[in-house]
Amino acid sequence: MNQVKFRMWGFFALLLASIFTFSSCGEDDTQTAPIITLSNTSFTGKVGETASTTVTADIAGEFQELRITKFLGTDIDDTYGTNGTLTVTAALPYTFDYVLNEEGAETPVRFRFVVVDKGGQTDEGNFVITTELTLSYVLLRFNWRWEAKIGKAYAADPEEDNIEECEKDNVFTFNEDGSMSIDYGALTGIGGGTCDFDGLQPYVSYEISADESLLTLTKDDAFNPGNFTTEEYTIVEYSLTDLRTTTLVDLTGFGGIEYDWTYTFKAVPK
Description:
By secondary structure, this protein is mainly beta. The protein contains 3 helices and 18 strands. It has helices at 2-29, 103-106, 135-141; strands at 35-38, 42-46, 50-58, 63-72, 75-76, 85-88, 94-99, 109-117, 122-132, 143-151, 160-161, 171-174, 180-183, 203-208, 214-219, 229-238, 242-250, 258-268. It starts with a helix and ends with a strand.
């Protein structure tokens, strides 16, 4: 009888051990995957500003590495890290910084973060960076062809485009050092009008106000070098293709009025 009881107790002990072992293996097999968290998932700023996000993760197992892949638009930027991916093995949290530059002015920038645990399980998050255009960037990126000058000479007149045919091929070039020039094109000094004075007051430099609301162009005097005059253009809007400004034109000396004329320019390749 005692032997039967002993055998039964032994059977139950083995059964409990099997259940415990099975349960433990089941827990290992179903270990929770990492859960990644980014302190910021997007950033919008101008060239020179710093976008920052801190990566953390809830990891049930053991952390192995963080993989950071850089995208320009939908394409991987293979100049970043190794073939586009930087691997970080330092323990989390990890703070990531990116200084906005001209590459993002025309192409969205995205960083994908992938947390990997020792079991090979992963989770990922994305940091999307939008780079706003600056007036300096668009002026330097292209040359700018004069397209229209809309205004009026007398109060009773309607607004109209007063650009001369010979002005429509005038192209302005802005340089990084603050200097500038103008190419008057093939139509110049012919047929009277403003083009007869081309080259008498060449543009030599420009300045952009800190808030990018004002563009000041400086002209020299061909007959009296060093006798500078300026033109001020209030920035209305700009893009990679168009620049629209206003400038005060004073025609009171000719019996007209002072009026804010709208001057527009079109981007052309350098």
